[in-house]
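#lab-general

N.A. 3:47 PM
ok so I finally got the sequence cleaned up, no stray characters, all 409 residues accounted for. can someone with queue access submit it? mine expired

B.Y. 3:52 PM
send it over

N.A. 3:53 PM
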Amino acid sequence: MEKLMDGRSNVGIKKAEKVFCMVLAMLMAMLMAMVITINVSAGESISKAKIDEYLYTIAYSQQEQVKEPIYGSIDGEWNIIGLARYGAVTKDYISKYKENLLKEVKAKDGVLSTRKYTEYSRVVIALTSIDENPTNFGGYNLLKPLAEFDNVNKQGINGSIYALIAIHSSNYKIPKPDKNYTGEVTTVKKLIEYIIKNQNSDGGWSMADKSECDITAMAVQALSFYYTGSDKSVKKSVDKALKFLSRQQNNDGGYSAEGISNCESTAQVLMAISALNINIEDSRFVKNGNTVLNGLLDYYSNGKFSHTKNGGYNHMATEQGFCALTAYYRSLTIMNGFYDMADGISYQKVSKKVLEKKKTAASKTKTTKTVKKTTKKSTKKNTSKSTVSDKDKEETTSVKNNKKKQQFK
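B.Y. 4:20 PM
back already:
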C-alpha cells in the first residue's frame, strides 16, 4: 500500500503495463502474419499485370507452335479467336488463316457439314473476331445454315449454344434459310428456350444424361447475354447453373470431366463466370482458398497448357486455356466480353506495348554494342579476360529474348 502511494512504484507499474502492451501487440501482429501466410499459400492472388504477361507469352508461343492456322477445331478457329480477342496477332497470321479457310470452304462448296452445325458457328465467331463478314466470305454466306433450327440441334444442346453465341457475336440478323429447307426456322427466342428447356433438374446441362461442367459452363456463356434482360427465365436458369458449378468445383479450384481433373473443363467455367463479370474471389467459386483462376493455372507452363496436371503441351487445352484467360482479362479490364465482338481486334493496346518494348530493346542493344566495342579495345591492351560484367551479359541475353518476342508483331 505504501509503495502504491510512493509514486516511484506507480511509474514502475506503468512501465510494466507499457511493456505488456508492446508484447501483446507483437503477438497479435505475429498471429495476423500467420493468417495472411495461410491465405496466400492456399490460393495465390494473381495480378492483372501477371495475367497480361501470361497472355502475351501464350500469344507468341501459339504463333510459333502453329505456323499454319487452318480450318478446324484444333489449330484453327479457337486459336484465331483467342489471339484476336487478346489482340496480339499479326495481319500476316490472319491472312494465312483466311487463305486456308477459303480453300476449305471452296473445296466443300460452302457446305462445312450436314450433321455438325457447330462447324458454321465456330467459323462465324472466328471471322467476326478478325473483322471479316461471315455472310459473304468468298461469296458464301456461312451464317445462313444457322437459320435451320432443326439442323442446328441435330448434334445436341451445343448446337443451340454456339448458334446463339455466333449470332450474338455481332448481333447478326438471322438470314432466311435455304429454299429447300422445310423445317423450323431459327430465332434467338427459340434458341434460348431450347437451351433452358434442356437444363437438368440439378442445374446442369449434358450431351447425354449426367450433367457436365463443360457443357453447363458453355450454356451459361450463351445465356449470359440475356441474364439481365426482360426474360426472367434466363436469370433463373443461369442462377441454378451457377449453383451446380459451385458444387462441382474441386478443392484446387479446378473442374473435372468423368472424374478426371482437366484444363478444358476449368477453362470453360472461368469463361462462364467472366461472361457474367463475377469476381474471381466470389465465395461461390473458391474452394480451400483456391479460385477457378488458380485451378486453371495449375495446367500452365511456359506459354502452354496441358490437358491434365504435369502433362505435356496439349493443343486443345492451350487454345481453351488461352481463351479463358483472355475472357477473364477482358472482364478484369472492363473491356467488351469475350464473345461481344463489336469492338473488333484490340490492336492499339498491344501495339503500344510492343512499341515500348522495341524502344527498350533498341536502347539496350545500343548500350550492349558500346560495351562490346569498349571490351574489344580493352582486350587488345590487356591479356586479361573480357571486362564485360555478368550484369552486362544478362542484359544482352534479355535483349535477345525481347527481340525474339517482338517477331510476331
